[in-house]
Amino acid sequence: MLAVAPFTWMLLTSLKTEDNALADPPQIIPRPVVPHNYVDVVSTGHTGFLLWTRNTMIVAILTFVGTTLSSAMVAYGFAKIRFRGNGTLFVILLATMMIPFPVTMVPLFSIFRWLGDNTGIPWLGTFKPLWVPAWFGSAFSIFLLRQFFLTIPKDLSEAARIDGCTEIGIFTRIMLPLARPALAVVALFSFMAAWNDFLAPLVYLQRPEQFTLALGLQNFQSQLGGTTWNLLMAASVLVILPVIALFFLVQRTFIAGITTTGIKG
Amino acid sequence: MCVFTLLPISLSFYYSFCNYPLIQKPVFVGWDNYRGLMHDPLFWKANLNTFLYAVLALPLGLALALFLAVLLNAKIRGQAIYRTLIFLPSLIPAVASAMLWLWLFNSKLGLVNLLLKSLGIKDPPGWLSDVHWALPSLVLISFWGVGNTVVIFLAGLQDVPQELFEAADLDGANRLQAFWHVTLPSISPVIFFNLIMGIIGTLQVFVLPFIMTQGGPARATYLYTEYMYDNAFVYLKMGYCSAMAWLQLLVVLALTGIAFWSSRHWVHYQDK
User: Fold this and answer.
1) B1-35: b or e for each residue (b if 16 or more CB lie within 10 Å)?
2) φ and ψ at B19, to 5 degrees?
3) Which of A2, A114, A115, B111 could serve as a FRET partner for B191 with CA atoms 20 to 30 Å apart?
4) Residue A76's pLDDT is what?
5) Are B103 and A233 in contact, with CB atoms under 8 Å apart?
6) How far is A63 from chain B (nearest CA, A)?
C-alpha cells in the first residue's frame, strides 16, 4: 500500500486543475478530470519535453549498445583467454567498481575539455561524455558477463575449433548467442542507468536543448515556480512511464538480473 | 576502461594536490587542499550530515528491506503482485521521485500533512522545510526505494534449505528462534552484500537533497557529495573537490575493509 499510494496520488494530482490540486481538504478523485495537463506539458513552447525525450533516447540507446558490446568482448577475454596478468587485471577491475562517480567527475571533465580543445571536436556540452565511456566497457557489466562466460563449458569452443571455426567465429556464433540472458540483463541495466542518470548530464550538458529528461524535469520545476503541482506531476508521470512500461515488458529479465548480480556478490 | 577510469583516478589524485581553478592550469600546492579541508567548517558540517544520514538510512533501510522480504517470502495469494509493487519505486528516476516527495511532504498542502491533520495532529512538522525534520525526511524517502534490496534478500531467503527449518522445528524452536538461528545465518552473505552496496550508496547520496532542499534549510541536509559538486562547478575549486573525492574514497575503502574483516565473524557461507 505504502509503495503504491504515492504513485496514485501523483497520477490523481496530474489530472486535476491547479485549484483542485491545492484544495484543502484534499479532493481525492479529480473532478473535472483534466488530461489536458499532459498536452500542456508536452506542447508548451518553453519546456521542450519531446526534445528531452529524444535526447534521452539517443543517450540511453548509445549507452546500452556500447556497454553491452564492449563489456561482452572484455568479459570473454577475461573468462576464456589466458594471458599474463589476467588475474591481477581482473582484481583491478573489481576495485574500480567501488569508486564513486564523483571521484572521477572532475578529471573526466578536464579530459573532455582537453579533447575538445585539442581535436577541434567539442565534447563538453554534447552527448559524447555521456555515452562514449560506455563503449569502453563498464566494470559491473564485465564482471557479470565474465561470471556467465565461465559457466559455458570449454568443450563447446573446442568442438567448434576442430570444425574449423575461427576465434572470432566462436565468440560471435557460439558464445554470444549462449550468453543472451546475461547480455539482456546488462543491456537493460545500462539502459535504465542512462535513462535515470542525473549527475553526469548535470555536469556535462550546458544548453537546455540538450537536456535529458532527468535534467529537463528539474529544469521544468524551477521554471514553474511554486504552485502548479498538477503540471509538475504530469511531467513526472511522463518521465516515469517509459521506465515502468519497459519493466513490465521485460520483468523476468529484470528480476533474474537483480537476483543473480546480488548472489554473485 | 583504462581511459575512463584509471586515468581519471590518477589525475584526480594529482589534482588533489593542486590549486586548480577550472579555467587555468593546475598548479602544484602540496597538502594545501587537505589542510584547508581540515579547517573548513562546511566540510565538517557536510561530513556530520552525511554521517547522520548514513547511520539512520543504512541500518534501518536494511532492516526494513529484510522485514519486507520475509513477509513477501510467505506463501500468500497475490505474492507476485506485492513483489512487483514493492520493487517498482526503486526503478523510477531519482528526479521524478524527488518531485513526487516534494509534493507529498509539502508543509501546507502535501498529502502527508493533510492526512496528519485529519488524524487530529494540529501542528504537523514542516518536513523538508524544517531544520530538524529535513534530514529525517530524506531518510524516510530513501526507504521508499528499498525494493531493490528487498528483491536481493528474497533471492537469498529462497535459497535457504528447507531441511534446516524442519530440523529447527523438530528441536522445538519457535518462529522467532528459527529466524534468528536459521534464517539470519543462512542469508548472512546476502546481508553482507547489501551492506557493502549500502555503504557505497548512502555515502554518495546526491540527487534527492540537491533537488529537494538544495542542502537547506540552514545547511541541515547539505551532504558530502553536494559540497563536492559545489566546490567543483560552483566555486570552481577543482583541486579542493579532488581532495574531497580522495578522502571519500579512503573512507569508503576503510568501511568496506572493516566490513570484510568483520564478515569473518558473522558471515557463513554454505558449503557447496
Assistant:
1) beebbeebbebbbebbbbbbebeeebeeeeeebee
2) -90, 115
3) A2
4) 87
5) yes
6) 14
Using H for helix, E for strand and C for coil, what is the string for B78-115? CHHHHHHHHHHHHHCCHHHHHHHHHHHCCCCCCHHHHH
- As beta bridge partners, residue B18 has B28
Nearest of A180, A164, A176 to residue A80 by alpha carbon: A176
In chain B, count of helices (H) and strands (E)? 15, 2
Tell which B residues from 111 to 150 touch A, by Cβ distance under 8 Å: 111, 114, 118, 144, 147-148
Distance CA A17, CA A32 (A): 7
Whole-number pLDDT of residue A15: 77
Query: What pLDDT, in 10s, does the model give residues B193-242?
Result: 888 888 888 888 888 888 888 877 878 888 888 888 888 888 888 888 88
pLDDT tens per residue, range A141-195: 888 888 788 877 878 888 888 888 887 888 888 888 888 878 888 888 888 888 8
Spans of chain B, pLDDT less than 50? 272
One-letter amino acid at B211 equals I
Q: Distance of CA A216 to CAs A102, A206, A222, B76, B229, Å?
A: 21, 12, 10, 42, 19
Residue with grid cell 567498481, as numbered in its chain: A97
**Chain B closest CA to A215's CA: distance in Å?**
8
- Contact: A24, B9; criterion CB under 8 Å: no
Chain A, 96-155: which have a CB under 8 Å from a chain B CB? 96, 98-111, 133, 136-137, 139, 142
**Run of H or E residues at B28:** strand B27-28
- Cell 478523485 -> residue: A29
The CA–CA distances, whole Å, from B250 to A20, A103, B41, B200 equal 51, 11, 20, 11
